[in-house]
Amino acid sequence: MKEKPTMTFRLGDDFYDKLDRFTKKVLEEGFELFKEEFKNIDGFYEKALKDTSKHKALTFIRTPKHLYLIEALYYQAFEYINREAFNKAEETVIILPDCLALMGDKCKRKRKKLGKICTRCVPNCQINRIMQIADEYNVEGYYSKRALTEQIQKIKKRKPSLAVIGISCILTMASGMRSAKEAGVPSRGVFLNFTGCEHWAGKPFPTETAVERVKAILEEKYGLPDQKP
Ligand code: SF4
Predict the structure, then answer these.
(1) Is 31 exposed, middle or buried (0-12, 13-18, 19+ CB in 10 A)?
(2) Closest ligand 1 atom, CA of 108?
(3) CA 196 – ligand 1 centroid, Å
(4) Atom of ligand 1 lying closest to residue 125 CA
(5) Which of 5, 25, 139, 213 is the most exposed place for a label (fewest CB within 10 A)?
(6) Radius of gyration, alpha carbons of the chain
(7) Which of 172, 5, 149 is nearest to 72 (CA)?
(8) Measured in angstroms, how far is the CA atom of residue 127 from the centroid of ligand 1?
(9) Distance between CA atoms of residues 172 and 29, nearest Å
């Protein structure tokens, strides 16, 4: 007997009404909840809309506030979904953003096969601090490449039981986690606290992240450093 096909989902006539109500509610509550964190986005967005320069990231920075919230939600859903697999994977690698380097274009990062690495040139750089924590767990860190999926796939070839921690801004985190998913690798992430790269600032400045959160993710997975198997 032929098996009946199973449908993953099936939309009824009222689906769009329900989705409309749900989305409006989420956005309204989200904007209220994050009004302090997101207070500059509208102004930035309006300015970007009026920008007639040849700014190469114009489309990217012309992102309305709604999408910041949705990207943050997407990230949080990934966090829920990935957590168990992330903790089960034997090895972890941290994927780092350029803009977190304190020395900016004077950063002394070094090219390696799997990506560039921090050479610990200044003690107060957050990447240096993150890598010192990572050292306690034998965890490597690489600067993110444009072809992120390929980069993660390459790392996975060397470390078949792999999970990654990505550090990234709100608008690029979820896409990075999707790239990791494409590479078959569970990911978790920590956001940058603000943006500062050339996409957002005429004169780029170093960003910051919650270093303690990176530490907490590693501790959750491996225990305290001296407990790591
Ligand atoms: S400490 Fe590392 S990441 Fe920071 S500026 Fe130096 S080489 Fe670059």
Answers:
(1) middle
(2) 7
(3) 16
(4) 4
(5) 5
(6) 20
(7) 172
(8) 6
(9) 23
Residue 42's identity, in one-letter code, is D
Distance CA 124, CA 107 (A): 13
Cβ–Cβ under 8 Å, residues 79 and 186: no
Per-residue tokens: 114: 């799997």
Work out whether the CA dihedral 20, 23, 26, 32 comes out positive or negative: negative
Look up the pTM and report it. Answer: 0.93
Cα distance between residue 124 and residue 112, in whole Å? 23
Q: Give the binding-site residues of ligand 1, using a 6 Å CB cut-off.
A: 101-103, 107-109, 118-122, 125, 127-128
Ligand 1 closest atom vs CA 96 = 3
> Residues in the chain with pLDDT < 70?
227-229
For atom 8 of ligand 1, the residue with the nearest CA is 107
CA distance 140 to 133: 10
